[in-house]
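Hi there. Long-time user, first ticket. I'm pasting a complex I've been working with (about 558 residues overall). I'd like to know whether the download I got is complete or cut off, because the file seemed smaller than I expected. Thanks.
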Amino acid sequence: MTDRRIYRRDQISELPRNIIEGILERMPIRDAARTSILSTKWRSIWTTISQLKLGNQFFKDTLKIKPMVKHELVSVVEKILLLHDGPIPMFLLCIPRIRFDCSADIDRWILFLSRNGIKDLTLINNSDNEPYKLHSCIYSCPELTRLELVNGIFKAPRKSSGFHNLISLHLKKIAFARNILRTLFSMSPLLQRLTIKHCTGIGNLNIQAPKLKRLLVLHNTEIQSICFTDTQNLSYITIIFGLTMGSPKSVKTPNVVRFLGDLPRIAELNLDGFFIKILAAGGVPHRLPTTANLLKTNWFCILVLSSKTCIIMERNDEELVLNRLEAPNCLDRMLDKLQSVKISYVMGLEPELLFIKLLLARSPMLETIFIQHSAEVDFEKGFSISKELARFPRVSPKAAIIY
Amino acid sequence: MSSSLEKNMLILRSSDGEEFIVPEVVAVMSKAIKNMVEDECASNTIPVPNVDANILAMVIEFCKKHDESEAEAASDLKTFDSEFVNRGQEALYDLITAANFRDVKELLDALCQNVAEMIKGKSVHHIRIQFLGYQLFEILTSNFIWNIWCDRDFD
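Hi, the file is complete. Here it is re-exported in full:
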C-alpha cells in the first residue's frame, strides 16, 4: 500500500488549468490560498480564480485566529483583492456583525470590482451600524448581470448611467429613496428576475419591466399601491405582505379582472391572504373573462378570495369559474383530471371544510388528498377535524385522505 | 447492427473498442457529442477516444440518471451525485479527464466539488502525499531537516 502511494504520479497537477480552478472555486478561499505552498506550480493558481466568496464562514474562520478589529478585516479583504490576477466576474461579501463603519472601504472595493469586469455581485451587510449606502460606481459596471444587496440604501443614479445588462436583481432590507423604483425599472431594460424583501419606502410599486419573468415581493412595509403596466412576460409572481401591514384599505390595487388581464403569460401565482383581500375589495365578478394563456402548467389553482369566495382555475378547459362556496351550484362541473391535492395550514374553519367536501364530491379521479393542520390546532381539535373529514361523501372510489 | 437501431439511438465506441448503445438525449449531455450530432458529422457510431469502456460506462450511467430524474427532487439527485463521485482516486481522475474532454458539465461540477471536499481542511503534508504523489521519503526528510533546523534555532 505504502509502496504504491510513494510512486504514484502527480495526477492533480496534471489536470487542465480550468479544472484546477474549478476545484479551487469550490472550496473556501482560505483553503484555496493555502494550496499556494504545495509547490511552485501551484503558487499562483489560486489568484486567478473567477469567484471570490468572502462569506460568513470566511470571517468566522479569520475571527478565530485574530481578534476582529477594523484594520484586520479591511486588510484581509484588500490583500485578497490586490493579490488577485485578472478579472473578477463573481464577488460575494458578507460584512460580519461589527460595530465600526467600513462603508468607505466597501466603496473602494466596489470601485475596484467595477474596473475588473464584475458580473455577479452579492453584498450582505450584517453589521449593527447604519445601512450601507451603495456607491454610485455600481451603475457604471457595464457587464453586471446579477446584483444582490442586503441592508443598504439605494441612491438615485446619474442620468446617463444604468444597469444595461442586469438580468437578476435581489434586494433585501433596502431603504428606497422616493420613486427610485421607477428609475430602476427604466434603467435596467433586460431585467428578468426581481426580488424585493423586507424593504421600506417603496410607496407606489409600479411594475414596468417588459422582460421581467419572476417577481417576488415579500414582507415589505409602506407599500401604497401595486400595479402592473408593462408586464407581458411575467410568469411567476409571489406577493406576500405578512402581518405588518395595516388595514387592507390602505393599499390600492387593480381589481381581479384587471390584475389577471395585465398578466397574459402567468403560470404561477402565490398570493397571501392580505393581498387577496385587497384584490377582492375591488369587486369580484361572477365569471372572469377567459384568458387562454392563463396558467401554462397543467395545474389547478385556487384562489380563496375572502372566506366565502373562491376562484378555481383550470387549465384543461381554459375556463375560469368563480363562485361562492356556499352556493349550491358552486363548482357544477366535475373536476375530471384532478388526482392529487395538498392543503396545508388547515385550521378547521367552516369554509375550509366546506371546500374539502366540495373537492371530494366533485373529483372522480382523485387518488390522494394530503391535509396538514396548522401548528395552532391541538390534538382534540385535530381529532374532531379528522372525524368531520371521514364523514364527507366521495365520488372517487380510490380517494384516500392522508391527514 | 445499425439497421436494428432505433432512430434516436447512438452508438458510442470506447478507446478499447467496446460499443455502447445510448439514447440520443443522454449522449448529447456531452457538449462535444452534441456538437458532432448537430453538425451531422457523426455517423451512427461515435468514437470516444481517450476514454476506456470502464469509465465510459460510468459516464453513461451518470448521464442516464440525470436525464431521467429531471423532474425529481434536486436533493435526491445531489445524494446520487455525491455517492457516484465517491470512488477511488484513480477512477476519479480518469472520470475528470473524460468529463472535461467530452464536456459534460453536470458531471464535471460534481467531480470538482468532490475533489474540493477532499482537499478542504487538510494539512499541506497530507495533500502532498495524497494528491500530488509526493514521495513519502521526501517529506520525511524535509521534516527531519526542518526539525534539526528548529532544534538548532532554539538551542
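A couple of notes from our side: The longest helix of chain B spans residues 136-154. Residues 1-5 of chain B have pLDDT under 50 and may be disordered.
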